[in-house]
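REQUEST ID: PR-0412
SUBMITTED BY: lab tech R.K.
PRIORITY: routine
TASK: structure prediction, single protein chain
INPUT:
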Amino acid sequence: MTTIPSNIFRKYDIRGVVEGPEAELTPYVAEHVGKAYGTYVQREFDIETIYVGGDNRLSTPPLKDALIRGLLSTGVRVIDIGEVLTPTVYFAAASHEKSGGVMITGSHLTTKYNGIKMAYGKLALADDQIQALLKLIQTDDFDTGDGKLSKDYQMIHKHMQTIKSKVKMGPRKLKVVVDAGNGLSGTYVPAVMAELGVEVVCLYCESDGRFPNHLPNPEDPELTKDLEAKVLEVGADLGIGFDGDADRCGVIDNHGHHVSADRLIAILARDLLKRHPGATVVYDVKASQLLDDIILESGGRPLMWKSGHSLMKAKIHEVGALLGGEVSGHIFIGEDYYGFDDAPLVALKTLEILSNTDQPISEIIASMPSMLATPEIILPAPDDVKFEIINKVKQVLESKYKVIDVDGARVQFEHGWGLVRASNTQPAITLRFEAHTRQQMVEYMNIFDQLLQDFPQVDRERLLAQIAAFS
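STATUS: complete
OUTPUT:
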């Protein structure tokens, strides 16, 4: 029986520490993941070809080489597509028959981490499928064969040209600041924007897997300050920041203010529903009630679902939705595309919409109804008890309120809502609240805080800080 750290096999991917004596994701582990994934997708999905890419982290090449060795040992054909974006791997898998894709990336995490994201066709492995890989490793249950390796370093250019063909810019000439956070998006995406007639001001677009300026996470307000300042400095129409592997992006408006992902989804939904009235738009349980309202007002069918990019992709595919998105910044375009999280395409679609209106993006956002909202409140809680805590809290809430339980417990109050759920990516529980007044917000947060007081394993400090901020 092969022993490897089981904690790195998470809900949507595999991720772990790669440095020092505590290293969890090593070349040895990556090779076994390659063996397990190659075995699994051949048995379950009749996959014949696997595209493998990696980000620009210094720890990525040895992990990628080891993973490819593992894949080849199962007899599958492997095509190395080089240093690419995660959506490039998804594009390769989705646009070829009987194909899968594996990406080595740590995304937005600090450089001591790296990870593995896995796709098959238009979908991504998740949950029980990832646990099935662990079981194959633990039981040494691998297919064997003599796989063939080839290279296609043009794949990212095919990807870029494809997404470029999906947009048609309007008459308004735009200026955009792009913050790549030294991820690979800076190497490729600004050039596509320029080809479409957009004036691009680059910020940290040089590829550097040490991320010397800031970690590439566009949904963290502490990490977008340079982008906000540059938008104001150069008088740009908007700013766009990408995470490390470009499956998420964040938008800064012309006044230097962050545009929440659910507002960006609302902009995309309004545009989509002009062409496809009645289309389904999927969003996660952390999204604003206002997104639901805007989808309905625009003639669409809103569908709330579980948070998590893999789970969202599966639901979008299941219901044939043309658009989906999460508060985390994963947005999925299914109109004339494959329905996976492709942040460069989302960025281009946003630019296309703005190029066809004289309204600044700040005015578009201001025209939407508004409620007070907290950010996502992340409370540390041990992995081994967080789901049990959520279940117990949910039982109490269900006895008193209307609860939506597709993912944790989202309580519908008279003038807002509150959510508590277990994080699938870290030892934590997460909360979010919306209300019309500060008093209502404090009332709703206090209801949840009183329940969490029964669980000393939960660090409530950030929730208490939000209660204080709204008091």
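NOTES: The first helix runs from residue 27 to 45.
REVIEWED BY: pending
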